[in-house]
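Hey, I'm writing a tutorial for new members on how sequence and structure tokens pair up, and I'd like a real worked example in the thread rather than a made-up one. If someone can provide the structure for the chain below, I'll link this post from the tutorial.
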Amino acid sequence: MATNILNALCSCNWFAAQGKNLLPAALKGSLAINRQMAFAIKCMIVFAAALLMGFGISMYYYSGLGADPNSILFQAVARLLRLSEGITTILVQLSIVAVFLLIHRKHIHVGTFIQAFCTGFGINLGMELWQAVLPAAPMFAQVLLCFGGAVT
């Protein structure tokens, strides 16, 4: 808590304009390490969340009972291009990111790319898993898969 307050004070423009150095060099080094650790932890959380989201979307796809509007768009493009749903998800999301890079670049960060790739990978991984576990899913299993996709 104290390091966050000191960090906020040191990064303040007023202190920078006054030329005052509030923190000793050793403490500044630990703040840089803490920032790097925080960034790595955030990236790992986005990675895990995107994989889980992709796995949930694959439950929707494999159940055959419908999905959310974005996933239906990705599934339709996948069928049109004869690609897997995961690869199509990556391609469509990266094309949307490309448009946003032209329009509003400040909202695009590393997590955007992690999310695009990991969601597609999670979809492909989930589809292969469900095809191996439930080759011909009965209706009860389809409903459970659809419910599981909603929960994740």
